[in-house]
Amino acid sequence: MQQTENMEPHSDDEIDILDLLIVVAKHKKMILRNTFIAAVIAIIYSLLLTKIYTASTTILPPQQSQSTATAMLGQLGGLAGMAGASLGIKNPADLYIGMLKSSNVQDDLVKRFNLKALYNAKIDEDARKALQGSTVVSAGKDGFIKIEFSDKDPKRAAEIANAYVDELDRVTSGLAVTEASQRRLFFETQLNSVKENLAKAEYDLQQMQAKSGMIQDYPQEKEIAESNAMLRAQISAKEVQLSAMGIGVTQSNPEYLRLKQEIASLKDRLKGADAADVSSPAMSKESLEYIEKFRNVKYDQAVLEMLFKQYEAAKIDEAKDYPVIQVLDRAVPPERKSKPKRALIVMLSTVTAFMISILWAFFRDAAEKANSDPERSGKVRELKAMLFIRKKRASV
């Protein structure tokens, strides 16, 4: 008997599912009324929404594969290792997605389709934001890029989606984005610089000969000078290669470190060669100056030859690796709308209204019980008073 009495208070505090069902049944008319009204309003609202159509196109971005001339360049010496250096973007899809989202592309689309008037935008920036809000560009795990554009006109949605591809092709045609293109531009700059140096060195040598007249020939010294020039040219070529490699790899890269060691080894050989390069005591001042200028010419010629081989190889790769945008699925005017999802809107609205109505029923039932209980009624009045005071203080 004592055990039963101890359990009674505990059972009073438990929530009885039957009591909850009684509360729901008690306020069933209010719950059903509110749910019905919410469903009707959601249906009317969804029917009034403008139909939106989404057109999509799928493209395969140009792949930055390894150069096909790598094997050939490996036999050329000098800058051969440059062909294997990574100068491109490691993830082509991210690069082209960035281009599609660039202001360059968006501004052309705004002008091409007169989007300022379509979106009632006063400035180009507002039109670009509206364009961005209607566009989704994503890359899948398969490497394909999908461009989706939404508009109330299905034909215009397809036209703008396809226009993105046209704009991307226009941008890539004016930018060097492949490994071969970057190599070609790099070597072209270096090649022009060496050509200028060689022209100056040859001019200085000719001026020296014209000024001094016939200079006695020193075959051994000239051979040593030419060998020295070739060694210096190899060092310069390797240093150019190292600088170019630094564009795409970190300084901790194994190939980068190996190339630095090669340069250090070549410089040690150059020191030994300079120490052994002892000119003949019988050589005049003019002859020494002639040998020096002869060495400069041979040096620039060697560097020019190495760079020219690399430049030609890069041009071959560039012609093959020209960024071509391949369209897998071209956008067509969609036949079915993508938005609004009327069934989903009505369902979510109905369920939400139903749950809120149930909560309101529980709240009303709790308030009614509180009014019938003097102790709880006092607490409710105290709570209202506190809320009123805090609200009044906040307004002050």
Give structural notes.
The protein folds into 3 domains: 2-49 and 340-395, no CATH class; 53-178; 180-320, no CATH class. It is 69% helix and 6% strand. The chain contains 15 helices and 4 strands. It has helices at residues 2-13, 17-26, 28-48, 70-73, 92-100, 103-112, 115-118, 124-133, 154-173, 179-212, 219-245, 254-276, 285-320, 342-372, 374-395, and strands spanning 53-60, 135-139, 145-151, 326-329. It is elongated. The two termini are 59 Å apart.
List the helices and strands and how they pair.
Elements: H1 2-13, H2 17-26, H3 28-48, E1 53-60, H4 70-73, H5 92-100, H6 103-112, H7 115-118, H8 124-133, E2 135-139, E3 145-151, H9 154-173, H10 179-212, H11 219-245, H12 254-276, H13 285-320, E4 326-329, H14 342-372, H15 374-395
Helix pairs in contact: 2-14, 3-14, 6-8, 6-9, 10-13, 11-12, 11-13, 14-15
* Spatial gap, N to C terminus: 59 Å
Helix content: 55-70%
Structural class based on helices, strands and sheet pairing:
alpha+beta
Q: What share of residues are in beta strands?
A: 5-15%
Compressed to H and E, one letter per element, the order equals HHHEHHHHHEEHHHHHEHH
Average pLDDT, all residues = 75
Q: Figure out the total of helices.
A: 15
Give the overall shape: elongated
Radius of gyration: 40 Å
This entry's quaternary arrangement is single chain
Characterize the main sheet. Answer: 4 strands, antiparallel
Total number of domains = 3
Give unreliable regions as ranges. Answer: 1-13, 65-90
Widest sheet: strand order? 2-3-1-4
**Number of E strands:** 4
